[in-house]
């Protein structure tokens, strides 16, 4: 319910803003441009480079985790073998007691290994999240700077992101003249000097 009320409030504000633009436009030359921010982000060479870097980090993490899991599995098998031996009636009492002691030590080792895996998972996920956030922040900064440069160079009054959606799931920009869309030119500007496509 609150979302609907908030959506209506935004819609009313939007109407007032458009009326204000129309009023200002009669006195001043208003030149608007639209950009699909999502498309620019996806097609920027640094985004693709960041995706590859994250993929490599993720694969390295998976390989290290598989090594830890293999060690866990081997230790668990050793524990099961020791437990069976500790209850084997064909062994002497002293031998069974030694196997039981070894089983206790192996169980402690297994628990420590489980803790190590859990800590590793948490640290690696946190590290991947931080890496992703750092890369995203740097890429967004580049895109915004490029948009500001285009805006100043081309004399645009404002540049709107046409990739967004309202609370109702509708596009924020329902229609714009394709001639006012600067998405391709911004992508080309950002990719100047970047590595050539393979």
- Compressed to H and E, one letter per element, the order equals HEHHHEH
Termini separation: 50 Å
Range of helix content: over 70%
What is the count of distinct domains? 2
Helix-strand makeup class:
mainly alpha
- Overall morphology: rod-shaped
Supply the number of helical segments.
Answer: 5
Radius of gyration: 30 Å
Order of strands across the biggest sheet?
1-2
* Residue-averaged pLDDT: 85
| Beta fraction | under 5%
Which regions are unreliable across 5 or more consecutive residues at pLDDT < 50?
Answer: none
- What is the tally of beta strands? 2
Q: Biggest sheet, open or closed, and with what strands and sense? A: 2 strands, parallel
Structural description of this entry:
By secondary structure, the chain is mostly helical. It has helices spanning 2-27, 37-43, 45-86, 93-154, 183-191, and strands at 32-35, 158-161. The chain folds into two domains: 1-28; 31-191, no CATH class. Helices cover 74% and strands 4% of the residues. A two-stranded parallel sheet has the order 1-2. The model has no long low-confidence stretch (mean pLDDT 85).
